[in-house]
Amino acid sequence: RTQAEMAHTCRGTINLSTAHIDTEDSCNIVLSNGGRTYHLKANSEVERQRWVTALELAKAKAIRMRNNQSDDSGDEEPASQSDKSELHGPLKTLSSKLEDLSTCNELIAKHGAALQRSLSELESLRLPADSGEKIKAVNERATLFRITSNAMINACRDFLDLAESHSRKWQRLLQHEREQRIRLEETIEQLAKQHNSLERACRGAPGLASGTASISSTAKGSVQSAKGEASDEDEETEYFDAMEDAPAFITVTADPKHHRRSGSNLSGASEGHPEDWNLEDSVFESSNQSSYNESTGKDLLPRKRRRSRIPDKPNYSLNLWSIMKNCIGKELSKIPMPVNFNEPLSMLQRLTEDLEYHELLDKAVKCESSTEQMCFVAAFSVSSYSTTVHRTAKPFNPLLGETYELDRLEELGFRSLCEQVSHHPPAAAHHVYSRRGWTLWQEITIASKFRGKYLSIMPLGAIHLEFHSSGNHYVWRKVTSTVHNIIVGKLWIDQSGEIEIVNHKSKDKCQLKFTPYSYFSRDVPRKVTGVVSDADGKAHYVMSGTWDEKMECSKIVHSSHGSTSTEGKQKTVYQTLSPKVLWRKYPLPENAENMYFFSELALTLNEPEERVAPTDSRLRPDQRLMESGRWDEANVEKQRLEEKQRAVRRRREAEAVEALEEGKDYEGYIPLWFERKVDAVTGELICVYKGGYWEAKDKQDWSVCPDIF
């Protein structure tokens, strides 16, 4: 299939050009692409080999077709059928009439020419003098008639062109009026919701604590008692947006010292004890006291002094449109980009940057409750986006076989290793071990599309986190990142979508919703909300905050089903204790705006280190030249490295085709430090760390590393 056909295939289709084909045993075949995996079983080993050979030949053909074709898939949304009919209906009628006139003109010209020939023949005959004059007059009239008919046809064509141009103008005006109407409807809807909230607040005013003369100016709502009795909820009340695929919920902050269960309609579905929210010994409380310097561990060696700045970013001008106009609809990884669009870090280093708030996982180890531990894992999953709010530059695409290590075992208690295990599609494997009691691993494939005005980045693949002592195994996936104003305006980035974190041991879940930015929304920008529930669906905690600043956690003491909302969804009312801050973003270093908005950790990621592998990203020459401000030299070096990689890929593809034609197996590229296995939890084919890297580093034996730089 061509790539255009692949865009319209049925659900579940796998693109062979980017698929991984593996064999498990004598009869089983594993076919995977990104987050989708198929397990196929043949009747015999001979039949399995025939299938593998056929699939490999088809994959080689698909790769050749992909390399020879340009991705012309249109990403613009088609106009609605009504818009098309309104625009093209009158034009089609006018065009039809113009064709009729053109046909008549051709007939007039044909018959006029025949008439002129007849008159010319009459003129050649010997006729009386007065007859010749009359024939000449008739001939002149026929010529004048033909000229007039041609002028009429030209005038009709001008009229059609004018009608077409005005029709486009009218269509634009109509579309503008429709957008204005939609904005007005949304504004009215917002006003109606605010009006309902105010009405509820006014109705709930008599139900506040006795002796309270006023309502907090920051309160957004309240909950009435069941029998009209005085309630103890006199603190600030917060309303949380509903999850898309779950009932809407409202949270009401209660005072744990004066909380009374009797006389409240919040009892029922879920209950908790305020005394469980221990203010002295709780792990949650310790999270409020942590800072970047204090949370790194006092039982480890003192932190090594590392660099705190890099050379300032040069101010180079570039014609963006001249590069971007030929890139619409193409995979970002296939577009030759100058370093002007990059930041001096690779995607492997950007992936490692997710560990900036690793102390959240160190605290999670100390949690005795799995739902409490889930709160820290959820905060950690959100914290990985905090550095992206100003980071609109593109990281370097790693070369196949490129690695990156971050050995902070003696300072921070963990060591991390990344490797680029696939180039098309680009995929990176990551493994982190912490001596404080947790291990994290993932394989991320980046799917990206440039859509003219914005760029969508869709990470595929699951993130796994396991705690050693409890055996709790958490799995989640990343949300979609969108870079706006690619062509005109100031670049800005947004995160949108949902994250479902699942503890596969206890079956606890956390649903997090990243609310996309809306010009007409009154919500806090970059808002994140969620609920932590156990295996029975009982809610225990409410998560709230923003992905660029902080995340808070509120313990639920009661929950009940409230009234049905205007949208027809039944709201769940959660009564919670005061929220506690689990995570807060570290301030950026001084002069960060001139250093690509790098965080304190990001500034150290590309710092030269000794004894690293020869494939480490720190040794990549184009990236090092860019960091030094020598962008012209970096562009030349980048083109050299990419051409070197293309030559290796062409040689590998030729070897694959030759091996298949000879009936031999061809394994293709084999990762250095990772191996592909079927994950026991998700059933997906994933690259996991097989060991050997840190031992090779101790011996300084890098003989298995290829020459990629």
From TrEMBL:
The keyword Cell membrane does not apply. It holds the Pfam family Oxysterol_BP. Residues 64-89, 203-237, 254-309 are annotated as: Disordered. GO terms for molecular function: cholesterol binding. Residues 174-201 form a coiled coil. It is found in: Membrane. Its main location: membrane. GO terms for biological process: lipid transport. Residues 1-60 form the PH domain. Residues 211-225, 284-295 have a biased composition (Polar residues). PROSITE patterns: OSBP (PS01013), PH_DOMAIN (PS50003). It comes from the Eukaryota. One of its GO terms (cellular component) is plasma membrane. It is a peripheral membrane protein. Keywords: Coiled coil, Lipid transport, Lipid-binding, Membrane, Phosphoprotein, Transport. Belongs to the OSBP family. This is Oxysterol-binding protein.
